């Protein structure tokens, strides 16, 4: 598995394998391995990584091979020293950092559970857990220059509406109808334990959102979320969407 930061706040990525309890630190300038980080003390096989470049932290989703009662956990690493700062076996799911790096949102896509942690210095403090039991197929974090408080937008094969998770809400919001997405359990989202299908994306300013569902590709204005701005109805089986 190759874990790379989306932005240029950090000059390192990681290489790992789901059957090895280690991460290899990759210098993105020289493209050479600079360190091997053993995760064996935590029985941790890396499944997913979230980069918190501003705080100098890395959150690792751990698969635990030798503990059937607690098959997952979350490990927090210092990005510079590679030292472990915290390990929590009660946190399960794929970590996603909000764009302003104020929060870490951990998503259990098959269960529809959202765990919100606030990033305070070198610590993660639990803020809330939202249990909706609405499995997600794809999602994107969102906080760019907006005051709506939404942290995440998602698509589900069990709902035909756009899903929003708000920082102060105790439940999700269902916005306008976009159509359902396919339940891709054999896709990279579940095989690699990452949300990398890119079926939903916000632009860099956070004004617009594009997504792909059964009704076609839609574009929404995030400042007026009552209805999609436009829809392209004849595009089927879209694999990836990118803003240029």
Automatic annotation (TrEMBL):
It comes from the Eukaryota. This is Follistatin-related protein 5. It comes from Trichinella pseudospiralis (Parasitic roundworm).
């Amino acid at each position: 598995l190759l874990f790379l930061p989306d932005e240029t706040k950090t000059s390192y990525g990681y290489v790992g394998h789901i059957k090895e309890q280690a991460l290899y630190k990759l210098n993105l300038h020289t493209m050479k391995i600079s360190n091997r980080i053993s995760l064996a003390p935590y029985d941790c096989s890396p499944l997913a990584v979230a980069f918190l470049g501003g705080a100098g932290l890395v959150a690792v989703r751990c698969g635990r091979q030798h503990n059937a009662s607690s098959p997952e956990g979350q490990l927090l690493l210092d990005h510079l020293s590679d030292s472990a700062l915290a390990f929590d076996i009660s946190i399960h799911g794929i970590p996603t950092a909000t764009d302003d790096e104020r929060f870490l949102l951990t998503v259990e896509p098959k269960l529809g559970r959202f765990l919100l942690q606030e990033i305070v210095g070198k610590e993660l403090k639990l803020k809330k857990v939202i249990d909706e039991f609405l499995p997600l197929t794809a999602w994107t974090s969102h906080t760019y220059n907006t005051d709506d408080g939404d942290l995440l937008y998602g698509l589900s094969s069990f709902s035909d509406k756009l899903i929003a998770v708000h920082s102060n809400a105790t439940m999700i919001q269902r916005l306008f109808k976009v159509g359902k997405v396919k339940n891709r359990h054999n896709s990279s989202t579940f095989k690699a334990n990452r949300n990398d299908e890119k079926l939903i994306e916000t632009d860099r300013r956070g004004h617009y959102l594009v997504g792909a569902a059964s009704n076609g590709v839609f574009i929404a204005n995030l400042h007026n979320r009552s209805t999609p701005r436009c829809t392209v109805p004849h595009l089927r089986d879209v694999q990836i969407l990118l803003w240029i």
